[in-house]
Design brief:
Rossmann fold, 19 helices, alpha/beta
Length: 533
C-alpha cells in the first residue's frame, strides 16, 4: 500500500514513480513447498568458475533431495526434521547448503525473527558456508539491499524479516540461548564428539518446523556421530524403522566394488563429469593405486566409504562377518585373557569357548574408572552410551583388582575355567585378591612382545578370516578391533601396538591372549607333560 501511495504522489508531482520490486518466480501461489525452494535456488547466480554470473540450474539429484527434504503432510507441514546428505568431496554440498540457508533466512522458508546457523568443527570450516552465502547475496542486488553482513563475526541479518544467520564452531564456549529454525552441520564426519550436534538438536524444540541438515562425507569408524546417524538413516530407508521426521540421502560406493572403476566413483559422486572433475578423480585414483598408503584416504574421501585413513589390523567387513551371537552353555570349558589396566585405565576380560564344530564363541567384559563423560571426550568414544547399555562397568575413581578377582571366581563357578592368560602389569595385586577369596584358578603369564604376541595375532586373524569366531557384534570389542594397529619386527613378527593404535585396544589384546592360551601355550604344556611322563 505504501508503495502504491508513493507512486500516486510521484505522478501528481510529475516525478518518476518508484519502481515495483521484481516479481520472484518462487512466490507464485500454485507452487508446492519444495518447488518454491527449487525456484528460489535457481534465481541465485553461480559464484565462481567458468559459469560465474549465470543462474543456478539444479541437477536432478539435487532436486530429488530438496523434494524429499520439503515434503509435507496433508496440512502442509514439513515432515522432515533431521536430514543427512552424504557424498564424496567436491560435489557441491557446501553450495547447496548455502542456498538452503538463504531460503530459510530470506527466501520461501524464512520466518519472522528466524535463526539460521551453520556449525563446523573449526573456524576455517565454519567460514565456508558463510563465504558462499555472502557470494550468492552479492549476485542479487535486491538481496544486497535487504541484509546487513558482519564479516568479522560471520553473521548476516535480514532487515526485512528480522532473521539472523551466524556461523558457529565446536570451539565456541556456549550455545545456550539459541533458538534455531534451520541449522546446518558441515562435515560432522570429522567431529571428535557430538556435543555441538546435540546442543543444536536440542535447541530446536521451540520452533514449529525446525530443520537440522548434516552435510558430510562418512566418518572413518562405526562409532563416530556421523556413522550413528547414517546407520539409523539406512534403517529408516530400508523400512526397519518408521521415522518420517528423519531423512538420509547417501551417495557411497559399496566396499566390495572395484575402487578403480569410473562406474564405482560415480556411485559416490553424483556430480562426476559435471562440476565434479572426472580428470581430478582419475588423478587421485592413480596416485592411490601407486601409493597403497593413500588407498584408504581415497576410499573415505572420494568413494565415501567408512574406512580409516590408516591401515588396520582387521578390516571392518571381515570382523562384521563374524557377528553371530555367541552361546556358551553353563559348565562349558572356557579360556580367558585378562588385560588388567592401571588404576585409571580400562580393564578387559575376554572368555572363549570352542563348540563341537570348532567355532569359538567370545564374551568380553570391560571395566572403566573415572568420570565417564570426561573419558568419553578424551578418548572420542561413546563410553557413556556403553555404560548405559551395560557393556562397560563403571568402577569409580580407580579400578580395584578385587572386582576382577570376584568376577573370575564367578566364572570359575559357572564354567570350567581352564586357564587365565595375563600380562605382568599389576598381576600381583590380582593374585593377592584371588587368594583372599579362595579362588584357585590357573594363571599363565603372557608377554606383550613379538615372541608371544606374534602367534596370538596370527590366530585371531586366521579365526576371523575363516569365520570360526562368533562375537555378537559387541560394540566395545568392535571398537578395540577398529582401533588396532600392528607393528612388525625385522623377522616379520607382529604384535598389537597400543602406542600406534588410534584408540583403546584392551579387548582385542585380551582376546588374543585367550586364543593363545587355548591353542598354543596349553597344548605346549600338555606335550611337555606327556614327554616327562
Amino acid at each position: 500500500m505504501a508503495l502504491v501511495a508513493a507512486q500516486q504522489a510521484a505522478r501528481e508531482q510529475g516525478l518518476p514513480a518508484p519502481a515495483l520490486p521484481p516479481v520472484r518466480s518462487w512466490m507464485a501461489p500454485d507452487l508446492s513447498r519444495s518447488e518454491r525452494v527449487i525456484r528460489f535456488c535457481e534465481e541465485l547466480r553461480i559464484t565462481s568458475g567458468a559459469d560465474a554470473g549465470r543462474l543456478m540450474e539444479l541437477r536432478p539429484w539435487q532436486r530429488e533431495f530438496i523434494e524429499a527434504l520439503y515434503a509435507v503432510d496433508a496440512n502442509g507441514v514439513r515432515l522432515v526434521r533431521t536430514s543427512i546428505l552424504s557424498m564424496g568431496r567436491k560435489n557441491g554440498k557446501t553450495q547447496l547448503a548455502a542456498m538452503l540457508a538463504l531460503a530459510h533466512l530470506l527466501g520461501p522458508e524464512a520466518e519472522s525473527r528466524g535463526e539460521v546457523y551453520s556449525c563446523a568443527n573449526d573456524r576455517f570450516q565454519a567460514s565456508k558456508i558463510f563465504a558462499e552465502m555472502v557470494a550468492l547475496i552479492a549476485g542479487d542486488p535486491e538481496l544486497v539491499d535487504r541484509v546487513n553482513i558482519v564479516r568479522f563475526k560471520k553473521e548476516i541479518e535480514d532487515l526485512k524479516s528480522g532473521s539472523i544467520y551466524a556461523a558457529l564452531t565446536a570451539e565456541a564456549k556456549t550455545k545456550m540461548g539459541l533458538n534455531p529454525s534451520f541449522c546446518i552441520y558441515d562435515e560432522l564426519g570429522q567431529a571428535s564428539n557430538r556435543h555441538l550436534y546435540d546442543a543444536m538438536d536440542s535447541a530446536m524444540g521451540a520452533r514449529k518446523e525446525p530443520l537440522l541438515l548434516v552435510i558430510s562425507t562418512q566418518a572413518a569408524d562405526d562409532f563416530a556421530p556421523m556413522s550413528q546417524l547414517v546407520d539409523y538413516g539406512i534403517k529408516v530407508n530400508e523400512g526397519e524403522v518408521v521415522d518420517p521426521a528423519f531423512h538420509l540421502t547417501l551417495h557411497a560406493a559399496p566396499i566390495d566394488l572395484d575402487p578403480w572403476l569410473p562406474e564405482t566413483w560415480a556411485l559416490a559422486n553424483p556430480a562426476l563429469g559435471d562440476f565434479r572433475s572426472l580428470p581430478d578423480v582419475e588423478r587421485l585414483a592413480q596416485q592411490a593405486q601407486r601409493m597403497p598408503a593413500q588407498e584408504n584416504s581415497f576410499r573415505n574421501l572420494i568413494l565415501n566409504q567408512r574406512v580409516s585413513a590408516h591401515t588396520k589390523f582387521i578390516e571392518r567387513t571381515e570382523w562384521n562377518a563374524c557377528a553371530e551371537l555367541p552361546l556358551i552353555p553353563s559348565g562349558a570349558k572356557i579360556y580367558a585373557g585378562l588385560d588388567l589396566g592401571s588404576t585409571r585405565d580400562m580393564s578387559a576380560l575376554v572368555i572363549i569357548h570352542q563348540d563341537v564344530d570348532g567355532v569359538f564363541h567370545v564374551l568380553p567384559e570391560f571395566w572403566l574408572p573415572g568420570d565417564i563423560g570426561e573419558r568419553s571426550d578424551h578418548d572420542h568414544a561413546p563410553y557413556d552410551v556403553w555404560v548405559r547399555d551395560g557393556l562397560i562397568t563403571p568402577v569409580g575413581k580407580t579400578t580395584d583388582p578385587a572386582l576382577l578377582a570376584q568376577r573370575v571366581a564367578e566364572l570359575s563357578r559357572d564354567y570350567r575355567l581352564m586357564t587365565v592368560a595375563f600380562d605382568r602389569w599389576r598381576i600381583n595385586d590380582f593374585k593377592r585378591e584371588l587368594d583372599a577369596i579362595g579362588c584357585d584358578v590357573q594363571l599363565v603369564e603372557h608377554g606383550q612382545g613379538y615372541k608371544d604376541m606374534s602367534p596370538a595375532v596370527d590366530i585371531v586373524e586366521r579365526m576371523v578370516l575363516n569365520r570360526r569366531i562368533r562375537h555378537g557384534a559387541n560394540p566395545v570389542l568392535q571398537a578395540c578391533v577398529a582401533n588396532a594397529v600392528v607393528s612388525r619386527d625385522p623377522t616379520g613378527g607382529r604384535k598389537l601396538d597400543k602406542a600406534k593404535s588410534t584408540g583403546r585396544i584392551d579387548g582385542l589384546v585380551a582376546l588374543a591372549m585367550a586364543f593363545s592360551i587355548a591353542l598354543i601355550k596349553t597344548e605346549a604344556e600338555i606335550d611337555i607333560a606327556s614327554m616327562i611322563g
